[in-house]
């Protein structure tokens, strides 16, 4: 397990650094307006992928150990193509991305979704190292290609799109090769594959869709009420704040893979509690470091137009810690086929996002957006905490750090070294 966790953390660090480098390059080459446009393009791609992954999303992680792979892939591929067409029509009709980008958003979403199908298969097979490798390659290629293309005398926002095509295609080719080796399910279950994919995927994607709006609805509100340049500043602050999720997301990915393959409720509970506390600890440390960095450093790194980052990070900090906890709970619910609790939690968070966002962003701008995000994340995490405690019989005392947690984590890591 230690290899899976350390490898995933390293991969997350590399991909986050690459993402920040993309923002650094964009900030200097395209300005805050370019940063805002790229944020909307990425958000559009993510939105279309949400539709695509109703069938081929993270529900695959739960199904791969239980159903023959040959029965899972074709429905996922076909649905991705169909959903891509629907997504393009929605993006174009609702004008969710700048003019001229809708078709590129749909095409990039399709390539990335195909790759995501393969990555979820790898996680379901507990091949975390292969999953991490593909993810890192995609991030590195994107950064290198974008950096090269912006050396053009007059770079524009399509420069990012061209780099995204290259990186997504490279990742898809590598992940296709990675799942090419034979995978046999020890005891395959006789199930109606499409029905099971849709049932599991619907809950997962409903939760993910609402969570996406919790994360990014503010982008559209800021762009509407404050303009693209202000959105560019907020995307930088949000990206920095979310870097605190490096370790929580890494632990959550491994937790999901392990919990999906465990069958004893007590082991699932103990693993989740240990990972929860480790996630909170690491997220708190990263957040503290970010708050101590001088504002001029951010301005130097991302461009002279990027100002006021530190106050936004301070307002986002409580929400970032709440979502670090949510990472563990969400993957526990997904790994035990209780995705309905992720749906409810994300739904409650979305209500908070809409209410607070429509009230605070027009009145207070970027600080209002940060406060709205914190309220939404806190609402989601609070519900998930209560649901986890009710299901597992845990008490508030179980959620507090203890010496036993350290021993449990050390025991799991020690065991993981011998197993590898």
Structure description:
- With about 425 residues, the chain is an all-alpha fold.
- It has 16 helices and no strands.
- Helix 4 (about 100-125) packs parallel to helix 6 and helix 7 runs parallel beside helix 13.
- The chain is globular, with a radius of gyration of 21 Å.
- The chain starts with a helix and ends with a helix.
Query: Given the structure, what is the number of helices?
Result: 16
Main beta sheet strand tally, sense and closure: none
Q: Which regions are unreliable across 5 or more consecutive residues at pLDDT < 50?
A: 416-420
User: What would you call the shape?
Assistant: globular
The value of Rg in angstroms is 21 Å
Strand content bin: under 5%
Mean pLDDT: 86
Number of strands: 0
Distance between the first and last residues' Cα: 8 Å
Helix amount: over 70%
Q: How would you spell out the order of helices and strands?
A: HHHHHHHHHHHHHHHH
Structural class, from secondary structure content? mainly alpha
